[in-house]
Amino acid sequence: MNFKGTLPTLILEALEQEPSHGYRIALRIKERSQGVLDFKEGTLYPALHKLENEGLVQSYEGVEKGRPRRYYRITKSGRAMLAKDRAEWRQLSRAVTLLLGEA
Amino acid sequence: MTTELETWLRQASRRLSRDSAAQVRTEIQEHYESARDAAVIGGSTEEEANRLALTALGDARTANCQYRRVLLTSAEARLLREGNWEARAVCSRPGLKWSLLAIPVIVLFAAAAFFLTGALDTARVLLAGGIMMSLFLVPLFLPLYTSSRARVFRFVKWAALIAVLGLAFQWSWLFVACLWPVAWVEWRRISIRRKLPIAEWPKQLYL
Asked: What is the pTM of this model?
């Protein structure tokens, strides 16, 4: 399932736990959604760059298993944006559940 | 690197600037290698692992489209590199700088003189020309180094530009023809402003 437009929020959520690199972010999203939320991994990096341009995440050089990697960490404004997105999502989800009815 | 990955990277980095393309190659290659290693550890053959890692990346053209929205394209990088040559040329020669700044002042005085003699049409065109020249020459010497000052300046510049061109050409097709190149450069600058952090803006992005 690919929920259009939710990828930046999912990235912020993954980075809220700990700083990470692109591949691990993709894995975490898939694992935590139990494989339901799927997206093409080539589109993860443009989303990360967008978040970086907006000052919601910061990137830095790191090393993993001897390989240089670009790591990303969430910023203060990123956390604020995530909190706002969470609140909006809860509201939307409640409204849709009311309309469609609980299973 | 496999030929398929090379093809994918070439498509995904199409029309991006050299630096952006290098960035795309590095991050996608890192990602691909991690995905391939994970597949091999998971029991896939080398060939199967390569295929799985490439499939997970998705469509290269879609990625390219998204990359072009967030990273500098080759045309934007060229605009940043070459678009400020006139400012550099003017600022490096103090004599030329003051001569150029004198031109709009002379034109504005000439407009006043024509107005006083009753040649209203000539005065109107000269006034428009003088203000236009001031709009393009004076900002190079203004202390526009913060985004809020730059925003105020751009608002004033566009309001003055539209008013002046309207005054000079009476809102005819010439008005649109004159505004088009300026609007085009401004549109490119808006796109670049979104892609570059403010700390990396050259002076031309503030104007």
From this structure: 0.77
